[in-house]
Amino acid sequence: MEHILTPKVEEVKLLDRYTAKKPAIGTLYLTATHLIFVETSCNTRKETWMLHHLIATVEKLPLTAMGCPLHISCKNFHVAHFVISSERDCQNVHQSLVRLSQPGKVEELYAFLYNPKQDEDERRNGWGFIDSAMDFKRMGLPNEFWEMTDLNKNYELCSTYHSELGIPKTASKGTVFGSAKFRSRGRIPTLSYYHKESNAAICRCSQPLSGLSARCVEDEEMLQAISRANPKSTFMYVVDTRPKLNAMANRAAGKGYENEDNYSNICFQFVGIENIHVMRNSLQKLLEVCAMKSPTMSDYLTGLENSGWLRHIKAVMDAGVFLAKAVAEDKASVLVHCSDGWDRTAQVCSLASILLDPFYRTIKGLMVLIEKEWISMGHKFTQRCGHVDGDPKEVSPVFTQFIECLWNLMEQYPCGFEYNEKYLLEIHNHVYSCQFGNFIGNCQREREEMRLYERTFSVWPFLWENRHQYRNPLHKCSLGREVLRPSTLPLNFKFWCGMYNHFDKGMQPKQSILDHLLTITQKKAEGEKKMTDLQIQLAVMDGVLADQGSPTGTPPEQTSLSPVSVSHTAENAKPLMNGAAVEEAEIELVPTAGSEKMEPVAIEN
Amino acid sequence: MEFSEHIKTANVEDVVLRRPFHPPMQGTLCVTGHHLLFSNRDGDSSRLVLLLLRNIDAIEKRPSVSSGTITLKCKDLCVLQLDIPGMEECLNIARSIEYLSSLDIVSDMYPFFYRPLKLSLQDQWGLSSPEQNYAQMEELQDRWRLSHVNKDYSVCPSYPPAVIVPHSIDDETLVKVAKFRQGGRFPVLCYYHRKNGMVIMRSSQPLTGANRKRCREDELLLQAVIDGSGLGYIIDTRSNQQAQQARMTGGGFESKSSYSCWKRLHRQLERGKVLQESLIKLVEACGDHSHSVDRWLSKLENSKWLSHVHTALATAGLLAECVERDGHSVLVHGSEGTDATLLVSSLAQLILDPNTRTLDGFLGLLEREWLLAGHPFQHRCAHSAYSHARLRLEAPVFVLLLDCVWQLARQFPLAMGFSEPLLLRLAREVYASDYGTFLCNSDQERCAAGVKERTHCLFQFLLKPSEREHYSNPLYEPTELAIWPSIQPQSLQLWRGLFLRWTQHAVHLEKAQEELRNLVIECRGAS
Fold it and tell me: Most buried by CB count within 10 Å: which residue of A397, A580, B343, B470?
């Protein structure tokens, strides 16, 4: 690797950011993909790995008595303060990391190197694991009001949308193409979520090119078609997620928002979410609060307030709640946009979907949602995450905010979600790590041009395989089709220590309820499985399977034994139960409710 | 005394009751000596709402021509509203509530009238006595003795009749030491650390005054505490400046010259009025739903409640560190030694001692360190956050303790044998209770009022098999280790279970707790 000037530096100190504890001493390695710190000062081998692409900033500070400080902060909010004794080494590491953390082109990203030993078939199947088109089928589409069209199959209609779009049946091709000309970057109103129960739909688009007075008949027809697709409602909402002032400023540039007089039966509404630049600065301030060394409670709370971060989270949540309420209670369709319709619009549409539909509160459902509302609708992941060296003004924590809103919902509804906090953190991590191809590229077309599906792997099968870790043991399916109505009172928005101080283990609760519950439920599941196996064995011993000849054999047909015959066999098997094998069985026997009748056997032993 | 003379209108029909989580209910309101009784007969089912008058912190009345509305703000932070037909009735009822909710004479209070069928006045009152506590700690008995110098409460009115002091210090010396400490609160042992034999002592401030008076016996006692181990720490819960100022009013601190083997550390903990006002501001902020995130955070900051939580935990952590990590004995005091001192010493014990983290152990700790140690509950908890009455001696020190314990339990969810519902229950009982446990200001007062003979004991009740289950932590896995809390502001949270208890938020959390309990029981049954 031509960028690595010094692959290994010894006697490096890793400082604890918050306490005056002694720094850890170890060796720093630079590999092609990671920075690795191996602690040598403690007996257990402790390693800290940082992926180069996750590094947001590397800063070399002036030489001190201890050595030369090097501050690294990552996009997943991992922060490390190293002190390197030789200034030259520090200089070299700094220089290498600056280069490695900002690849010049997409092809240098980790995903193009990462090879999890899967063959071509597995890779291809992996990419098919989540199919957003299937989700429209799940919602009951196409139906008498909506159809799926391939008008955008060559990305001629809109270069940043994907190829298959849901549009109202009554909208003609002319209407669609006409409307595209009147919408910023051709991002026409298209279906995001269809609410079967009410026939109301959430649609999304970009701002209209209305300027100070421009109109477009096709666009007006398009909105009417959407409205008509929900025949029971006499009106539809048009939600502009920007602050009114921003939207008005856009008018001067030939863009803007819908004039209520020109569109029939629309109810127009601003919801006031700030733009990507405000959000970026706000996060910066929040991270400064997180980095404060032993702040007082007042410093911290004042800093939190001044960052404005939670105010923005609330604004996004409020908008999501507004949408869900419009659909579920007013039974009205909603059209949502911001400027380009790929940031704030993605946030609020996906949040509303989660509130409305329990499917998105499942592990797989969230994958589908992210695929559908973010990846295929052209959220500019490469630019927003700063994957490659580019315009820093395009970077913004839009996706992070969505994940944080979701976490806030989970805090309010501890039993409402199939997944847990770890799942959110893992997804967030992968969005930035570029280990998989899913979050590379700014839109579908770019991904195809990069041939991502042939050269990288998909993250979804990988997450699915590890789903047992992401389970919420308290999840209750019985909540059923319930629409979530979270409270958006300011006092419900909390600082997310698990995200922003995730790597500062000292700040997290020292014992995790989640881990504990995962362990005990896992044990229970294993116990139940052993129980079933044992019942089968007992049945064999009892002679039900005498003709098999092997008392330990567990042929498949045995799994269908009725409980009655099992308890019967258990009693008969009593005399046989002694020796080591039974000792082991005893532990497993007591558990399951279904095995009550077997208990005496175990106790007598 | 006759309550009836304060009840002009005992019954009103067609009253509408509004309260959190329930639709408005119409029914009959009835005022008794200790309760508001609301009953509603809806077809066959009749529902009864019983509210202890003592629980009412503030009452606001808005009479109009033919009816009136009374808003009741309770000490458990619940807010209720009664729409009463008839202005006269409304005013009468309001007057009764005002009077009966703030009875001053202990023996008039409800615990003296509460006679449930399942409990008997012959049941044991309290969990343990100083004698029993001492007898249980065999390992300290060769160096420490149980002194009965205070058996008639004459040496220190706020101490229990028996206390643990160094073996070498006789009762005569103690009497002299008591004269040198505010309120007679001479240094006594409150915790013995088995691992290294170090102890936590507590007392009130020494009365050195402006002339830097000394007391030979006091110095001897403290010398006997460290006996050969070289150095001890004094954690003074006031700032250095406050301690200096205290000399002007006759108080003071242990100077380096007189107590050469003791090192003083000052940590300023707020108390009294400041703490009460902090609670008032916090509750006000939690109840105002109109403001923005910025305003909420600013109000939360301004209330300083979390700062108090932070300081209390930090100081307790420091104390525990002195004992466990540095291996030194520690004396804690502020001025009176009945508030911040107890807060810090009990939190440190929770950090260090696994025995205090069981349900029984925790209630035992509260009995030893708060009830017997003379925290003036009646003064401190006369009013809560809503009262408009002029503040006198109120201070939510005990609520602050419960909040800190909740923070500990949040950071170590498996280490505590008791659950959040217990803390919430205690937070309620301390202000208004059917039980006599939190009545009066000291053991002496409780004995004089006959509390132990004529009321039931809350702690005994909470440990009954029927209650125990509800107040135990289903995740409890005892650990012998000290539990060191993180005191970074990010690691501390607003105790939503208490302060947002009457919002919708709490309902989902309660459901989740129930779900968790069921899940654990199910899994436990399986393994």
Answer: B343
A338 is catalytic: yes
A489 at interface of B, judged by CB pairs closer than 8 A: yes
B-chain residues near A405 (CB < 8 A) = none
A-chain residues near B292 (CB < 8 A): 311, 490
* Interchain contact A497–B (C-beta under 8 A): yes
- Amino acid (1-letter code) at residue B277: E
Q: What would the two tokens of residue B238 be? A: 């006031």
Rounded to the nearest 10 degrees, how much is the dihedral formed by the CA atoms of B319, B323, B324, B325?
80
Best residue in A475, A491, A531 for a mutation probing chain B (most B CBs within 10 Å): A491
Looking at residue B329, what DSSP letter applies?
E
A168 with A205: CB under 8 angstroms? no
Q: Which amino acid is residue B75, in one-letter code?
A: K
- For position A539, what pLDDT does the model report? 83
DSSP character at residue B372: I
Of B286, B291, B523, the CB nearest to A520: B523
8 A C-beta contact, residue B402 and residue B375: no
Q: What pLDDT digit, counting tens, does each position of B472-493 carry? A: 999 999 999 999 999 999 999 9
CATH 3.40.50 fits A140-356, yes or no: no
For a pLDDT cut of 70, what percent of chain B falls above it? 99
Confidence of residue A546 (pLDDT cuts 50, 70, 90): low
ipTM score over 0.85, yes or no: yes
Residues of A with CB below 8 A from B294's CB? 305, 308, 311
* Closest chain B residue by Cα to residue A493: B293
Please name the member of A296, A473, A501 whose beta carbon is closest to the beta carbon of B307: A296
CA distance B306 to B493: 8
Smallest Cα distance from A310 to chain B, Å: 7
Radius of gyration of chain B, Cα coordinates, nearest whole angstrom: 24
Q: What percent of chain A has pLDDT over 90?
A: 68
Instruction: Write the pLDDT tens digit of every residue in B123-169.
Output: 899 999 999 999 998 888 989 999 999 999 999 999 999 999 999 99
Q: Is A512 on the interface with B (CB under 8 A)?
A: yes
Look at residue A519 and tell me whether its pLDDT is greater than 60.
yes
Domain boundaries, chain A: 8-101, 140-356
**Segment (H or E) for A52:** none
Write phi, then psi, for B47 (nearest 5 degrees): -120, 145
**CA B282/CA B302 separation, integer angstroms:** 8
Query: A327 Cβ partners below 8 Å, 6+ apart?
Result: A193, A195, A198, A200, A201, A202, A333, A334, A352, A356
Q: Give one DSSP letter per residue of A247-303, joined into a string.
A: HHHHHHTT-----TTTSTTEEEEE-----HHHHHHHHHHHHHHHH-SS--HHHHHHH
Residues (pLDDT < 70) of chain B are: 1, 43-44, 526-527
Give the DSSP letter of residue B210: T
Query: Could you tell me if A332 and A200 are in contact, meaning their C-beta atoms sit under 8 angstroms apart?
Result: yes
Check residues A604 and A531 and name the one with the higher pLDDT: A531
Residue type, A572: N
Which positions 177-206 of B are in contact with A (Cβ < 8 Å)?
Answer: none
The answer as to CATH 2.30.29.30 being correct for domain A8-101 is yes
Examine domains A8-101 and A140-356 and report if their fold is the same. no
Over residues A497-518, mean pLDDT: 89
Q: Could you tell me if B107 lies within 8 Å of chain A, comparing CB atoms?
A: no
Q: Contacts of residue B414 in chain A, CB cutoff 8 Å?
A: 511, 513, 516
CB contact under 8 A, B410 and A509: yes
Cβ(A205)–Cβ(A337) under 8 Å? yes
Residue of A nearest to B499 (CA): A491
